[in-house]
Structure formats: structure tokens, C-alpha cells
Amino acid sequence: MLALAVILCMVLLCCSCAGNKMRTSEDDDAAAGHTAYVERDGITGVVLEDCTLTDCIVMTDKDIGISSGPQRKIVEKMGNYDIHAGDIILILNEQDGRMKVAIPHGDPPHVHGYLSSKIVSTKKADIENGNQARVIECMTYDTPNGNKLGERSAGVQILSRERGWCQIEPLGTGETPVWIQIEQLSFDFDQSVLDTAE
């Protein structure tokens, strides 16, 4: 008798669920209007004149309360974003004379936007005159040929160049500027970038 009652309950449960589709996290994302993403190979470039990125977005991570697994990306529209001649960018794609680029540094982080491809260079000589660079385990000094201050690894803003030396400060920190030898600069920002699918 107990077995018959269990079977009857199972049949009723199955019948009540037969017309219902089980919701998945993908369904929830689509219903909520979440953005689809794609990995792009970002190629280092430099802006040759002051300009404004248009149709900008900022991509940030949102903690969704799961201790393991990826965090959800949040895309916020931010309007336009001014950049300056010499600023380093990552080229994500190009179409009809217009480039989609990402700023590999700065505040706010993860800015993506569009600019004219006519004002961007990927030539090594142009990039090496850029405003930003990377340093890895690089000795810093208080003045050119001055006192050693310690090693630094960071993305940096280049403030000035002087006879084989450059004055830098870590990006976005406002720290006291230091000096390094120019040959310690790396202008290779190439990296894979998560972008919105178009």
C-alpha cells in the first residue's frame, strides 16, 4: 500500500511539471538583459592626438555571492572619455575607419570606446614615445644616477624623459615620482580582453 502511494505521488509530481521548462542561469541572464561577452586579442597602439572616445562603457565585476566560479560582469554606459596624444590603448577591432579600443590603465578601469583609426599608430617608434608603460622589477632612483629607492613592478605614467632616464609614477596612485633608466620601460600591453559581443 505504501509503495502504491509513493508511485501515485511521483506520477502526480511528474504530470504537474511536464509543461514547465526548468529555468537555468542562462535563462535568468537573458531575461535580465545581461550582455554577451567575447575574448578579443588587444593589440597595443598609441593615440597620436588628443581625442574623445565615444559610446564608452565601463566593465566591472559584481560579486554574486558565489565563492567559486566567475563573477558576473557589469556593463555601465558612461558617455564619452577624453584621452591625450601619447596615451596607450588596446585595439580590439577595426571596421570602416573606426576602432573599438580599451584603456589598459587608468580610472575608471576597463573603459571601452570608439575612435577614428586615422589617429592611432601601432608603429614601435610611436608607441615607445607613449605616456604609459610597464616596469618589472625595475630599480628606482630619487634623481637620475641618484640614490636607489628600491625595485618597482607596475603600470606607470611617464612624466618626463631626460638623457636616458625618465621620471615615472605608478598609474592612479598619486605616489611621489621616481626615476628609472629608459631601457627598463616596456610598452607591450598586448593582452586578451573581455569585451561585449557585437
Topology:
Elements: H1 2-17, H2 25-31, E1 37-47, E2 51-62, E3 72-83, E4 88-95, E5 98-102, E6 111-116, E7 120-121, H3 124-127, E8 132-141, E9 148-162, E10 165-170, E11 178-181, E12 191-196
Antiparallel strand pairs: 1-4, 1-7, 1-12, 2-3, 2-6, 4-5, 5-6, 8-9, 9-10, 10-11
Oligomer: single chain
Number of helices: 3
User: What's the SSE pattern?
Assistant: HHEEEEEEEHEEEEE
Low-confidence segments, given as residue ranges, are 1-32
Strand residue percentage: over 45%
Please give the number of β-strands: 12
User: What share of the residues lie within helices?
Assistant: 10-25%
Mind telling me the C-alpha Rg? 25 Å
Describe this structure as you would to a colleague.
The protein has 198 residues and is mostly beta strands. It is 14% helix and 49% strand. It has three helices and twelve strands. The protein has helices spanning 2-17, 25-31, 124-127, and strands spanning 37-47, 51-62, 72-83, 88-95, 98-102, 111-116, 120-121, 132-141, 148-162, 165-170, 178-181, 191-196. The strands form two sheets. Strands 1, 2, 3, 4, 5, 6, 7 and 12 form an eight-stranded antiparallel beta sheet that branches. The protein starts with a helix and ends with a strand.
